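Hi W.,

Here's what went into the run:
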Amino acid sequence: MINPLEPALRKQARFNLPNRFLALQKLITKKVLTIILTAIVSFGVRAQQNTGFRQGSLVSPQISEGNSVTFRLKAPLAQSVSIKGDWEADGGKGTMTKDASGVWSFTVASLPSDMYLYTFTVDSVQLLDPVNPFVCRDVGNLFSVLITNNGKGDYYSVKEVPHGSVARTWYPSTAFKTSRRMTVYTPPGYEESKTRYPVLYLLHGSGGDEEAWVTLGAVPRILDNLIAERKVEPMIVVMPNGNPSKQAAPGETKENLAYRPVMSNTLPGYKEGSYELSFKEIVDFVDTHYRTQAMKSKRAVAGLSMGGFHSLFVSANHPDLFDYVGLFSPGINFKTVNMNLPAYNDLENKLAAQMKKGIKLYWMGIGKTDMLYEPLQEYKKILDKIHFPYKYVESSRGHIWSNWRSYLLEFTPLLFKK
Amino acid sequence: MINPLEPALRKQARFNLPNRFLALQKLITKKVLTIILTAIVSFGVRAQQNTGFRQGSLVSPQISEGNSVTFRLKAPLAQSVSIKGDWEADGGKGTMTKDASGVWSFTVASLPSDMYLYTFTVDSVQLLDPVNPFVCRDVGNLFSVLITNNGKGDYYSVKEVPHGSVARTWYPSTAFKTSRRMTVYTPPGYEESKTRYPVLYLLHGSGGDEEAWVTLGAVPRILDNLIAERKVEPMIVVMPNGNPSKQAAPGETKENLAYRPVMSNTLPGYKEGSYELSFKEIVDFVDTHYRTQAMKSKRAVAGLSMGGFHSLFVSANHPDLFDYVGLFSPGINFKTVNMNLPAYNDLENKLAAQMKKGIKLYWMGIGKTDMLYEPLQEYKKILDKIHFPYKYVESSRGHIWSNWRSYLLEFTPLLFKK
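Here's what came out:
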């Protein structure tokens, strides 16, 4: 994929009005200015506050044949520039080199099709790629984003298929005595039909929030594309905020911009179980406000890391609610939990009861180098001991979004089959 | 407002696991590693892919008494660091100074209550504030964001009031033979009630898209807060994409990340009138899919810059649709338009017909230093000539979001009154 935008960017650079405007203003009278501005405006410009790319015609990242990717940064005065990304080759690290015009560049030979995050470091200052307007926030950090195609990345991309809707809405929580925010994906055709849909409850990890799965997790694209290919049943995906001490994502709470995202485990209320025990209030809200198939066989709960921990205990404490459970790199080191709390105690009996009520799929996936690999092996022993049936998948790499998007691609086609 | 997060950030810095993990991995066997990791995990950490603030315990921006704001950047190797923001004092420019620890800082004495955008420039490279996770995209550029309170900024902030929902959805466009994306705000209580609501159609400027008003324009906060104060009628706000050659915002189209946002006027289809002439398909979609009061007296259309141009011609070409029209810094230099096109021709007669059908409010606002000030004065003469009644407001400053948010605060309380 050659980036076709260079001419457009060059054209764009001509319209960087505000600076020129300020410089002119000092030199000429208002009347002359009016004539000049009229002439400029007659080029058809309706300049807004902040326009024009910061780095002229520079293209970065440039994705070429075979998913080779070139990154560029103009920094003529810099002493050293490096790049750090979440790809596997060379640990995602690269040293950039400078050309005569002060542009630093670095090329990665071939990136397997996926979504990637990266930043530059210029003389010890970490920054986003200034010419790439696409970013994702992960916990408290922003990253520049790119997608390589011809593989999994195609599912993370917008294609010419019908698109679902994505809503941010608030539900009243009796358990937390406040309203809380959730993100809800409804499948293409939801608004036009009278159909009732199954529901996947999809939970984020520690430090995440109700924005994580829609941005880093590419949920709207994955669902749109898999539904278009008829690989998954059209479904509603509910992504609630799973951070007991916060109502909503950073910037969406009454603390506004004063709350800087931190890992959930540094916040009060972490792992005391009230979120897991009260989860039915979320299900009830969704069943009341959306056209759902409000039954166990049409409900799934899945989550990554802390969300896997939540999914385990939400489903174990509500054996009548979910026929499908997904634990993605689950954070289930029980040594870190007070297992005497009502949400967590008596686990073997709860699992036995859940098994007895019937469960259609209990799916677990983890990367071979995940730091949470061993705790999941311990958990498998508990399941084996009581003959609890499950599906277990091992992938390469570790505790990363690349795996979680991939698990979603694997998990969702298994849901809600007759 | 003193930022209370410094201790939390310091705590956070300890949990920057992945790097330590990699370093350790080379030194120790897997068994030892497992023991160490178990110990680390037992601190309650469920580290995700990219965690920890990049600049340790640094706080930036720090908003103090009287809305004095201090910006900080750690860049020990930099030769010069400056800041550029969209506040008025000193043209939003500042030179930062370095302390012994390599932290550059700059303090603005007092920023009037508002939302502000800013960037740093380090040795000629422009970058976002690395410790501020809050950003807005304006056309193709990202900016760090801050809000100062005790004034208009309070309306741009999340408060403890009921919150509306915000949905991104797609409508089928017959005119453009494709589906197109829109953002829809529904007021608090919409989901619970059977009430029908009035609708404000709110249009973005050149280079903007269906995300502009919700992010830069703070629409959800402004509406939530004004509705809570009973200053505006609960209403639906529809923010369609007004870029004839694009289906959706950058990153939401089939071009994916290859489409870098540019000004609309560099794209095909700009100002040929099909968007304005076909606007009723948007109104019909909204009236079909939302509980609207589907009548002229309960509909408004308003927009900024190019969206003001659109609002003028959308309403003039549909005299039966809107009782309320708002032109915010409208881009109406008719010398730049082919006024023979069906959407734009015969304007005086169209306005006369619109007046005859009755209009409750025709509101126009512009900044005294706006480059589009003169064309609006010309347009007022056209309206005066045919005795078209309007309300005209002049503000300070120019073609900036500060004004457009402010106009929205002024305009919405005037809508849908009996």
